[in-house]
């Protein structure tokens, strides 16, 4: 079975969101891989991402800090597992840089960007270690939060970012 066939098989504890975006995938990939761009759209409406660092290589860090309007902060730290420009990004919080186990892994994420007649089919998958983690993420508002982030990403790549 090819890796592309595997990526379409839902994981046991998966949440996902997809949307057809009227933008080329190279722009969307840039918005995902350039910290200054990711900071503009990462997080639900009302959230900011004042900190974003990434080292775009397998094992390189993916670190963000989201801040809610009430000042509550949500840090994320993980590493990239796969980078196939401009098609796919895979990262996890199971490790921190240096391949050091994080202690409490929550999820791995896969973002795929498929060309569709000048547009891009965007799919983000959050794959969790357990049903309890999947349920917790869903209860935290996965679909609404990731949907709002996706709204912000679409606005950036269709209106606020040069080709």
From TrEMBL:
Q: Which SUPFAM superfamilies match?
A: Bet v1-like
Q: Where are the transmembrane segments?
A: none
Q: What is this protein called?
A: SRPBCC family protein
What domain of life does the UniProt record list for this protein's source?
Bacteria
Species of the source: Pseudomonas violetae
Q: Which Pfam families match?
A: AHSA1 (PF08327)
* InterPro entries the record matches: ASHA1/2-like_C, START-like_dom_sf
Provide the family line: Belongs to the AHA1 family.
């Amino acid at each position: 079975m090819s890796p592309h066939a595997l990526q379409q098989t839902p994981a046991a504890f998966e949440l996902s969101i997809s949307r057809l975006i009227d933008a080329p995938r190279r722009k969307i990939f840039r918005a995902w891989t350039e910290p200054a761009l990711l900071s503009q759209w990462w997080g639900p409406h009302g959230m900011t991402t004042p900190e974003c660092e990434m080292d775009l290589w397998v094992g390189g860090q993916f670190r963000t800090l989201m801040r809610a309007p009430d000042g509550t902060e949500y840090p994320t730290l993980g590493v990239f597992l796969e980078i196939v420009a401009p098609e796919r990004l895979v990262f996890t919080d199971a490790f921190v840089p240096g391949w050091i186990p994080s202690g409490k892994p929550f999820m791995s994420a896969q973002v795929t960007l498929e060309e569709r007649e000048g547009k891009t089919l965007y799919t983000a998958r959050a794959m969790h270690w357990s049903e309890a983690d999947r349920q917790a993420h869903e209860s935290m508002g996965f679909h609404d939060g990731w949907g709002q982030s996706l709204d912000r990403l679409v606005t950036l790549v269709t209106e606020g970012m040069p080709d």
